[in-house]
Amino acid sequence: MAIHFRTRIRFPDHSNHKPSGYFFFISRFISKSLSESTYDPPFSPVSKLQKAKKKKEKAHGGNSNSNENPTLPLKSYLPFDFFYSYSETNPLVSPIGYRESPKFSPFGPGRLDRKWTGTSAPSAVEVNINEVLEERKRILGDPLLDEEVAELVEQYRHSDCSRQINLGKGGVTHNMLDDIHNHWKRAEAVRIKCLGVPTLDMDNICFHLEDKSGGKIIYRHINILLLYRGRNYDPKNRPAIPLMLWKPYAPIYPKLVKNVADDLSFDETKEMRSRGLNSPPLMKLTRNGVYVNVVDRVREAFKFEEVVRLDCTHVGSSDCKQIGVKLRDLVPCVPILFKNEQIILWRGKKDHEEDMNS
Fold first, then answer.
1. Whole-prediction pTM value?
2. Within the chain, what is the greatest distance between any pair of CA atoms?
3. Is 80 exceeded by the pLDDT of residue 113?
């Protein structure tokens, strides 16, 4: 028979006891002596305030009128016209109207010495192409060796790379140039991941990236690019790139699809459209996908078919029209219908007759 003994230990209850006057005297004396003394421990609020004041004085140069900026309007000696998007804009096609007045510059009122025309900010300085090419060649320096290229590719090719810029449906935008130079401050190369409509023409993206940034593409795999800054690149002497404060409204361009296609009658155009809608889709495109092989697939299909349908469900009507414009120029072909996110393309009568004769 086991007998268990339980003992209770009671501690004295001091909750109702008030601290003595001696305790209050000691605590007030310590706090008063620390606050009034010159001793300031690290990471204290007083030291943070003093450091913040010093930083503000250095930033403003000791001038109390910090709101005044004498550097406006900004001046940039970049040898090209400023567009919102360089790869997705065709300067040869002039708009027929504007959704906003051209006087509203996306760079802000009075912030840039270039006049905004509604689509671009033209350069007012005459450019010497030979001097620009020589300066770019000097910055790039000697070509990289195969070992150096392989080392950079291994360093930046992974998907978790911190030096990455995502290129979307806007293509090579103006503000992206500033992002590239910001990465080049601390890294020799930057990784660019391309998605959406611009991937239909990767050669165009590569050209504008090299032409506008002055770098060199040393690696290209499907939609992944590696842009190298050059051996003699100096971050302190980087070009001045004024930023666009907002995205300008797209102007109004001529109608893409005509009621009656060229070289066809009204009944023939109607018959082509119905045939295309009832035909099986050649491809199904996804939103913000990679469209690298779309042009080749459409060209191959036109060898056997006269009308091709592309299923662009959930892609968006604006992206569908941009895809149609790109395919019209790259394949080439004639877009004859955009309906319910379906693109109907006709290869054209001239191409058909040439194939038949050959």
1. 0.77
2. 114
3. yes
